Amino acid sequence: MRMPIIAGNWKMYTTPAEARKLVLDMLPALDKVEGVDKLLCPPFVSLLLLKELLKDTSIRLGAQNMYFEVKGAYTGEISPLMLVELCHFVILGHSERRWYFGENDRLINNKIKSALSHKLIPILCVGERLRERESGRAQEVISNQLYAGLSDVATSSEIVIAYEPVWAIGTGKAATSKQAADTIKFIRDTLASIWDGRRAQEIRILYGGSVTGENITELVSQSEIDGALVGGASLRPEEFVSIVSQAAKIKGKSII
Ligand code: PEP
Question: pTM to 2 decimals?
Answer without folding.
Answer: 0.97
